[in-house]
Amino acid sequence: MRLSYLLAFILPFALVSASLQEQIIIPPMSQNTEESIASPFTSSQPTLADLLTIEPSASIYYSYARETELSSRFASESVWFTMLVPTNKAVMALAQKPHQGPESVEPHIGISEQELDESSKRNVERWVSAHIIPSRITLSDTPVSYETLQEGKLVTFNPVPDSKLDSPEWMRVTLENGVRIIGMKEAQNGVMYLIDGTVVPN
To answer: How far apart are CA 122 and CA 69, in angstroms?
Structure first.
């Protein structure tokens, strides 16, 4: 009888001891490991699509750009675009809006609604692509010209006379027709320059 009481008293302690011996101690995770698990797909910089979305002064240009297939590449990490983005004020000042092209396109006899729509889409594509340089650029040695996504269209950057040497390079240049760069934002897949005018497509 005493043996059964003794076993009943000792057995739980023996099982706990065995359980502790079988435990595997897992080392604590490093801070870097915890961060990578918590945010495996975060990036330190926004994409061009992000910048265009949150920039209120570029909403008209982005509205036109979203009508083109080019816009799907604004969020891609496999491209690098230098974008010359006109402000809303600059677009509104245009005598002919981007969808109208160099000459106003109005419905008239002989042109169907479908033909008018296709013409407007081509005009928008030309205008949007004329504001995109498909490469990195440097403005340290001007004048300098770069090809845009519109075939045959070059954008030339000219030095501003008597500009301050300690100011950013983009503040010391103008584009065609004296268009000035008024802001710059970097993305993980390019650079967005805000301009106070527009680039005229071919």
So the answer is: 12
